[in-house]
Amino acid sequence: MSNNYVIETTDLIKSYPGKIAVNKMNVHMRKGDIYGLIGKNGAGKTSLMKLLLGLTLPTSGKIKLLNDDNPDRARRKIGSLIEEPGLYRNETAFENLKRFSLLTGNSDKELKSILEMVGLADTGKKNAGSFSLGMRQRLGIAIALLGHPELLILDEPINGLDPAGIKEIRDTIIRLNSEGVSLMISSHLLDELGKIATCYGIVNSGVLVEEISATELSNKCRNGIKIITDNGNEAELLLKRTFPSLVLSRDENTVHISSTDVDSSELNRILNNNDIRVYTVCDESLDFEDFFIQRL
Fold this sequence. Notes:
alpha/beta; Alpha-Beta Plaits; 4-stranded antiparallel beta sheet; 11 helices
């Protein structure tokens, strides 16, 4: 196992009678990452997270956390929010943190700092039972931050939230990451995860199908060039003669080129020099959601 990862698993398996929930997963998450765990409901995301947190025991395989071969010891430096947070609904945000801090020994000053970090410093005497779902999720994240964790594992933290609540959680996650916290986040809301994740793990039927960085994903989704002209037929014939190796297709006056290796300005110049008017030359990208659906 490498010493470059905050999470690393080797052939991790969790099986139940008649079902394999986690099937030989090899996860690699680096320090400083926001690791987006993507998959359909029932794909194995929560099962993996519970194994990492020691909430269930693996059938076989190895888990290394925070560069420590002893996962139980490393888990003291990990905070988590699995499903909905368990809160004292008749108590304030500060009183909730105070109760949970009996396990971690945080001072009142630290508790106030954590509430400030998650945007709940001004809730005053309002009880948690009166909080919006987004506020409750942020309080759950605040509880996960007790003990100064180096790593947070959050299971569907934006599930069921309205747009304002989603933005609240997103801003909190970005802020935590900027302050040095690594995060693993599961979600099936791909567009939202795409706004924050630095890398992804794609899970399907208990199998980790692929791990990919946000940069690699961007490059893979940029998969061609689209040209709109006043004469699609002539443009297609000319480009086929000039660039025999290019894979082209045409939809009326729009020519699609399945490559980004050719200079779009050169394409524009050739078409204009042959009296073909060009209205648009642009990258043609695979939709972010479509990329993942192809792998699920």
